[in-house]
Amino acid sequence: MKLKKRWGLAVTLAVMVSIVTACGGNGGSNGNNSNNTANATNKPAETAAAQETASGSGAGDKKITLGFSQVGAESGWRTANTKSIQESAKEAGFDLKFSDAQQKQENQIKAIRSFIQQKVDVIAFSPVVESGWDTVLKEAKDAGIPVILTDRAVDSADTSLYKTFIGSDFIEEGKKAGQWLLDQYKDTQEDVNIVELQGTTGSAPANDRKAGFQDTIASNPKLKIIASQTGDFTRAKGKEVMQAFLKAHKDIDVLYAHNDDMALGAIQAIEAAGLVPGKDIIIISVDAVKDGMQAAADGKINFIVECNPLLGPQLMEAAQAVVDGKEIDARIVTNETTFTSEQAKEALPSRQY
């Protein structure tokens, strides 16, 4: 049976109930699933069934050990993502073994092998890059440890090496950014010069956000990308690369940044050059973290495509399901939106990240 949201929420509630019984306390809900969890409490029959299922499988008697390898701490988005995973693991009563890869694939491979040696119940990770994972994923499979991908995908042809991929549709994010730009310049008779700050070279979000954006704006030949370079998803690198763009090109109309942190670094470079971000250079970004939303509310970023970092609740539901021997969807997509400057101003007061 495929994992359904309704079933997953009921199991999550059952785990939380067992924590209250054993420890006499509860940390409260987190992320986008809080309202749905509340709704699950109004379904006693389903909750009882979920508790019975967990008890029957033995999962309720054994704390699940989850090994998680994070990309690093390169941005505000990543910090929020880490916090969501750590808090959600605590709420679910999981034993979380957390590893920071510091943006290096070799560190993630070492961490995954360490998790295998420790015989964790589930391994989850957000891959630094898309390629080069088959060997270590086969090692996990041979050890009988299920793997869950979060935030970023891998390009392994053998999809049996992992149970599911939880995260955003990065191509769709690029398309949303491109469509907004198309709409803004639909009547232009002059060339629109675009510079692009890409994410980490070889990473899924960098590849897909670039592809989605380029494919969308291709319908208007006046929209031209005149320079594109990686900023490694960091504010410092975004500033450095934007400084180079400004020196090399005197006629930049639009900046497309693959995340808010690079956009914020670029804004510093634009202002230092005596230009007005959001006016002299139109800025499009992806993420919608609080700092980026503030810049949008201030008119410095014109359009932001949301990439929701609060994946913790979904990850814990999926981990619980695979431990219980349930089949789950191979692709779990997060729900996201977009923000203009005015919409960012309205949403900012209640922003969680």
List descriptors.
353 residues; alpha/beta; 6-stranded parallel β-sheet; 6-stranded mixed β-sheet; 12 strands; elongated; disordered N terminus
What is the radius of gyration computed over CA atoms, rounded to a whole number of angstroms? 22 Å
Indicate the low-confidence ranges by residue numbers: 1-60
Count of alpha/pi helices: 13
What's the average pLDDT?
86
Q: H/E series, N to C?
A: HHHEHEHEHEEHEHEHEHEHEHEEH
Main sheet: strand order: 2-1-3-4-5-11
How much β-strand is present in the residues? Answer: 15-25%
Helix content: 40-55%
Shape: elongated
Largest sheet: 6 strands, parallel
How many β-strand runs? 12
Structural class assignment: alpha/beta
Distance between the termini: 34 Å
Summarize the structure in words:
With 353 residues, this protein is α/β, with parallel strands linked by helices. 46% of the residues lie in helices and 17% in strands. The protein contains 13 helices and 12 strands. It has helices at 5-23, 34-40, 44-57, 76-92, 105-118, 134-142, 170-184, 204-217, 235-248, 260-272, 290-297, 312-323, 341-347; strands at 65-70, 95-100, 122-125, 147-150, 164-167, 192-198, 223-230, 254-257, 282-287, 303-306, 331-333, 338-340. The strands form 2 sheets. A 6-stranded parallel β-sheet has the order 2-1-3-4-5-11, with helices on both faces. Strands 7-6-8-9-10-12 form a 6-stranded mixed β-sheet, sandwiched between helices. Strand 8, helix 10 and strand 9 (282-287) form a beta-alpha-beta unit. Helix 4 packs across helix 12. The longest helix is centred in the first third of the chain and has 19 residues, at 5-23. The protein is elongated, with a radius of gyration of 22 Å.
